[in-house]
Design brief:
Radius of gyration: 18 Å
Strand content: under 5%
Number of strands: 0
Largest sheet: none
Number of helices: 11
Shape: elongated
Distance between the termini: 25 Å
Length: 198
């Protein structure tokens, strides 16, 4: 039998302010070679983000991060900064852009941010997009998050998307379908009951 622990959604966890996070990273990086400060693509992203005042400027900064990450920039720091934006920015369009930037990255930090956004974001559109992004994650945290969302999200459409992600043909669905028969039966039983309710 699989035990799922239900925890209420939408309680934002503490995320350090971006400025503190970046100055701490700079202090760590000053001791390491190949630091964030010395990476020209990420430095350009950081400067754009720090000077961004409007939503459009923030969206442009997130696009710069997308480009830097696709060029092989240090993923960990870029993902941490994007995660901070995604978890703290007030504008849903900016948070949605963060989800779209992180959705193809199979880094554990990206999966963690997507899981948090899928569970906690106040915007239905952002949560829905994060659920869809998690569908193709190979990290076990994605399965746990999708199960939780399928059971407790307050929007039926988002619960349904999480259920389909677990049973569909994405990486998560393939994992669930090839799992231990008891695990598979428990998940499918919960999901069948969910999909038959509305």
């Amino acid at each position: 039998m699989v035990a799922l622990h239900i925890i209420p959604c939408r309680n934002r966890s503490y995320t350090p302010p971006l400025e503190n996070m970046l100055s701490n990273q700079r202090m760590r990086d000053s001791k390491d070679s190949g630091s964030f400060v010395n990476h020209p693509e990420l430095e350009k992203c950081l400067l754009a983000l720090k000077s961004a005042k409007s939503t459009e400027e923030k969206l442009a900064a997130v696009e710069l991060f997308r480009g830097a990450l696709s060029k092989g920039a240090q993923e960990q720091m870029g993902i941490e900064v994007l995660g901070n934006i995604g978890l703290t920015d007030q504008d849903g369009r900016v948070r949605l852009s963060v989800v779209n930037t992180l959705k193809g990255i199979q880094h554990p930090s990206a999966v963690k941010v997507l899981c948090q956004m899928a569970l906690l974001d106040p915007s239905d559109d952002v949560r829905s997009s994060a659920v869809i992004a998690l569908r193709n994650c190979k990290d076990p945290k994605a399965i746990k998050t999708l199960c939780r969302i399928a059971l407790v999200d307050n929007k039926f459409d988002i619960r349904r998307k999480a259920a389909y992600a677990l049973t569909g043909d994405g990486d998560v669905g393939n994992f669930v379908n090839s799992a231990d028969p008891q695990v598979k039966n428990a998940i499918n039983s919960v999901l069948r009951s969910l999909l038959s309710d509305k």
